[in-house]
Design a protein that fits this description.
This protein has two domains: about 1-100 and about 265-350, Isopropylmalate Dehydrogenase, CATH 3.40.718.10; about 125-255, Isopropylmalate Dehydrogenase (3-Layer(aba) Sandwich), CATH 3.40.718. About 40% of the residues lie in helices and about 20% in strands. It contains eleven helices and twelve strands. Helix 1 packs across helix 9 (about 295-305), helix 5 crosses helix 6 and helix 10 crosses helix 11 (about 340-350). Bound molecules: 3-isopropylmalic acid and manganese (II) ion.
């Protein structure tokens, strides 16, 4: 029997609750498809930080590095200053484990949950490939004359040829694998960011022309991209973009697919430890009430199985999520599901 070692970080707020449901579904799928997942739980997040004053010990990073996959609930605690846990845990893991891709599928499962008029599941089905290790996120920059009237703050966008190229290659390969429209759209800002996106654009066309001649290359400025997300989401197949733009457009993507209750993402290192998460955050006000939607975390688990190569089991989870979304759930929003958090987990697990 094939077995996989999985690190689990429930994290803060509703994170542990939704991860529990994700594991429930993963276990049901494992049973059905004859695989085994062994979980190792890590206590990380705001509570641990408040207790120990340490967000993420070096030794834990080294341990996590050895897992093929990590399932993450949520990071973010109301008593911890914004930035500390995000930088100290989430971004640190993305960087140190070289999870250089942030993969965000935007797929509408049921028309009822789309805020766009007259858009159907077949109109909203694309993937955003966000560069996850560079750009404005590296922390490069600094202050001069801080606190004085003439202070200067510089925050630099770092774009290396190596970093851009590996992200583009991943995106081209994914487009090929999806085999939908065979179209890859670079989303950038070549009209203003004439250094960073010059590099991106040149690399995009060079790699595409030489190694992926079967993939159509398309370009959209990032501001226009947000416009098309709303107006013509059906134009997109795969989108590739930098870290900051990817952060912004994927929240819009999440809304277009029905909201944070259903949106999942993967932080991918194709050769190392990849981490899968619902992208909605820790939702502290719903903690412990059994009202949060676990579907996003269940979809994160599904992405994880797909990444591990268990495509059949992953597909079965997705089909069950689609069925539950279409036939059972009243709303994707916390508190309005029509079911409790664990009942939604049960529905997906039994529907496999
Ligand atoms: C995301 C989040 C993070 C990001 C935050 C929590 C640091 O918004 O995963 O999109 O900006 O990448
Ligand atoms: Mn974000």
């Amino acid at each position: 029997m094939k077995s996989y070692e999985i690190a689990v970080i429930g994290g803060d707020g509703t994170g542990p609750e939704v991860v529990l449901e994700s594991i429930k579904v993963l276990d049901a799928a494992s049973k059905k498809f004859g695989i085994r997942l062994n979980y190792t739980h890590y206590d990380l997040g705001g509570d641990r930080y408040l207790r120990t004053k340490e967000a993420l010990p070096d030794s834990v990073v080294e341990e996590l590095r050895k897992f093929p996959a990590i399932l993450l609930g949520a990071i973010g605690h109301p008593d911890v200053k914004p930035g500390i846990l995000e930088k100290g845990i989430l971004l640190r893991l993305r960087f140190e484990l070289e999870q250089y891709i942030n993969l965000r599928p935007v797929k509408l499962y049921d028309e009822r949950f789309c805020p766009l008029k007259d858009k159907k599941p077949e109109d909203v089905d694309f993937v955003v490939v966000r560069e996850n290790n560079e750009g404005l996120y590296t922390g490069s920059g600094g202050f001069v004359f801080k606190g004085t009237p003439h202070e200067i703050a510089v925050q630099e966008s770092i774009n290396t040829r190596r970093g851009v190229e590996r992200c583009l290659r991943f995106a081209f390969e994914l487009t090929q694998k999806r085999n939908k429209e065979n179209k890859l759209t670079l989303s950038g800002k070549t009209n203003v960011l004439t250094f960073a996106f010059d590099l991106w654009e040149r690399a995009f066309h060079e790699i595409g022309k030489k190694d992926f001649p079967g993939i159509k290359r398309d370009y959209a400025h990032v501001d226009a991209t947000t416009m098309w997300f709303v107006k013509n989401p059906e134009w997109f197949d795969v989108i590739v973009t930098d870290n900051m733009f990817g952060d912004i457009i994927t929240d819009l993507g999440a809304m277009v697919q029905g909201g944070m209750g259903i949106a999942a993402g993967g932080n991918i290192n194709p050769d190392g430890a990849s981490m899968f998460e619902p992208i909605g955050g820790s939702a502290p006000k719903y903690t412990g009430q059994g009202v949060i939607n676990p579907l996003a975390a269940i979809c994160a688990g599904q992405m994880m199985l797909d990444f591990l190569g268990e495509t059949e089991a992953a597909k079965a989870i997705e089909n069950s999520v689609i069925k539950v979304t279409r036939e059972k759930i009243k709303s994707l929003a916390a508190g309005k599901l029509g079911y409790s958090t664990s009942e939604v987990g049960d529905l997906v697990a039994s529907g496999l």
